[in-house]
Write a structure and sequence with these properties.
single chain, alpha/beta, Rossmann fold, three-stranded mixed sheet, 9 strands, 12% strand
Length: 309
Amino acid sequence: MTTSAAESSDKARPVVAVLGTGIMGAAMARNLLRAGLPVRAWNRTRSKAEALVPDGAYCAGSPEDAVTGADVVLTVLNGGPRVLTAMREASDGLAPGTVWAQSATVGDAATAELADFARQRSLTFVDAPVLGTRQPAEAGELLVLAAGPDSTRAALAPVFDAVGRRTTWVDDDGSRAAASRLKVVLNSWVGALTHATGEALALARGLGVDPQAFIESVSGGPLDSGYLRVKAKAILSDDYTPSFSVDNALKDARLIVDAGKRSGVRLDLAQAGVARFERLQRRGKGERDMAATYLASFDEGAEPSAGGI
C-alpha cells in the first residue's frame, strides 16, 4: 500500500491544539502558524487566543473545542493545577493516542501527576518543557527538553522545529519527568545569574562605582556572559518590560527549592532568591521582568531609577 503525496503532507503538518496563549504560548503558536501548521488556540482569557486569529489560528471556545481533531496537544499554562484543569475540561475531545506535549514548567512532582492523567485517558504523554523567555520564544529559538516514547518523535518534529532552535531528548518515558527535572536544574542556574547580576549592580550603586566599569572588567573573560549583559542592560535602562516576569520567576524558584527539599539538597541561593522575588511581589512589582531583582536590594520607597545608577 502506497502513501499519497497529500497524505504525507498531512502527516508533516499535524493539527496542533495550543492550550495557554500567554507570552510564551502565543509566541509558540505564531511560530507554528508560520511553519504552516494548523493551530487551534485556547486561553481562559479569550482575547489572548483571539489575538492569534489574524495569524491564521482557530480561536476555540473551550479546551474540549481546541483539542477536537488535533493530532498534538501543546500545553503552555502557568502551573500544574491549571494544566490538569484544562486537560480535564478537554477530556471529551481527546482521542485515544493523541500526543500531548506538556511544555509548561510545573516541576517533576506535578509532571508525574499529569503523566498519570494521560495514562488514564490513553494519551501519549511527552514531558517537554522549554528553556527561554519572550525574545527566543518569538524568534522560534527556544531549547526544547523532551522525554517521551520514540514513536512520538516524527509527529512532534515539525512542532518542536517550529518553536525551538534545538530539541534535546533526555528519556523515552515522559512519566519519569526527566526533562522537567533537567529544566529545574537549568532554572536554578538562570535564577542565580539573574540575582547575581542584580546584586552586583546594586552594590556598585551603593559604593559609587560606575556599573560600566564592572561590565567592562569582566568583558571577554570567563566571568562574562550574554545573559549578564541582557539583564544588566534592562537594569541600567530602568526597563522592566517583562521578558519573564517576577511572578513566573517566583513560581519557578519555589519549584527549585521544593525539588531540593524532596531530594535532600539544601539550596541556600535558591531560597534567598525566593525571598527577593516575594519582596518584589509584595511591593506590587510581580508583572515586571525578573531583572527587577535589582530593586529588591533597596528599601521600599528608596528604589533607584536608571538615573540614580
